[in-house]
Amino acid sequence: MAPGAREKRRPPALLLATLLLLTSFSTISSTFPPSAPSANPCCTYSNIGINYGQLGNNLPTPQRVRELVQSTTITKVKIYDTNAAIIEAFANTGIEFTVMVKNEQIHSLLDAHAAQKWVNENVACYLPATQIRTILVGNEILAGNDDQINGWIVPVMQNIHSALVTLRIDNQVKVSTPHSLSVLSSSYPPSSGAFRTDLVSHVIKPMLQFLSQTGSPFMVNTYPYFAYKSSPLNITLAYALFLPNAGVVDPKTKLRYYNLMDAQVDAVYSAMAKLGFQDIGIVVSETGWPSAGDPTEFGVSVNNAMVYNRNLIAHVTSMGTPMRHGKLMDTYIFALFNENQKPGPTTERNFGLFKPDMSVVYDIGLFKGGQRYANVFPPPPPQPPAHPYPSPDEPPPAPYYHSPPLYQVPPATPAYQPPPTPVYQPPPTPAYQPPPSYQPPSGGGGGGGGGGGTGPRIWCISKPGSPVGSLEAALNFACGEGGADCGSIQGSGACFQPDTLESHSSFAFNSYFHKHGRNFWNCYFNNNALLTVSDPSYGTCVYPSQ
Question: Residue 388: is its pLDDT beyond 90?
Fold first, then answer.
């Protein structure tokens, strides 16, 4: 999976403009989403799969994993390579398999003969005993912003498909590649979904043509958890966890969205439709919620993870998205196991449904003959602390929306765990998508990747009065790991003067904001930034706005 003042108040006029923007795109009613029917205990979930990662030194053998999966109603398994021991262990089980060309192998398969050899040795030799149904070329390649590697993906997909045609198994095995949602330049409202303009002509269009011609799906990794973690004061837990909530209406389609994942997926459908492709299905290749994390990671608990995955299954096995209401999506839960060698924060090692000893982390009703669940309504978590961030002048957060509990699920840990000591953690960029709150759609003449409405011009700048240390850390993240274009604030750049932390941070924050999708959480920076409709450009220093 995916692969850095002086105290003063926000001007009243800017605050009013921001409030007007925040209320301009959504219509809320008191209705609740339709309930998902309880699944039949006698049947398997034909569209539910699991991601079987291997980044652990204490994981069970493939044979024991096969026995575990066979004891559940899971019918699909996705792995991140072509591990022979795993593929052979699942022979004659009837479980459908998805395998992957690792990112570092892609270049070698630009040669058609090498691609044919790879298919012979890693796919064809296991058929038909192991039911390999999909070959993925890399994982979230386009999130890396490497034009050379991006240009390799479609040719390699074509080479692998040609090898399948040669073996006459192209109708049995499909070829695709999974994406993070960073491939979109606009995603809210869902009808404004559009691909990034820098990808459209040389990668996205040829890829969609290939998928359409071969009957293969567009695969996307969606993580409502990361959006909630990034902005817990703006995103309700109910909207992220498929719980009852008022919903939000797309002003163009008038469709009402009751959960974040549906909105994410429909934004991709809209983006494909804008390029003329309405016949390509979507597979959710990764989605999940962590059960444990660091003290500063919002929304992490066993209870929240259980509720998300139970409600996810109830939803995707009974209905589609608002734009594809009758079409069920294949959905792969991340992940099968907690993996102790995954890098990053503690959450990265705690997405599993099972512990390495194969005991359950929490029960979501996947065991054969076990309890199945429709919608799950846990007791609401406690309110967040009055001052969750360092600045003592920050107002207390607005209360979270939580509907009255309809079904009590005893939580193993509190459903919400506020951080005791806030530290700067820049929000992850790929997987975030909007809640029922403001996100400006791309303007008709801007970087909307094919058009997505007539949204306002908007900029992201540093918040007046931000603590110097926190602002410096945010600037270092934006210009470093965040990939912002900071050349203009170097010594000879057009925006170097005035040589102040606030001015340099504003330019870097704005660059990051537009590079990573113009979602409101891309202008957060640990509460050191804000959106503005007033152009901060001056002299020869021009701030991009689209």
Answer: no
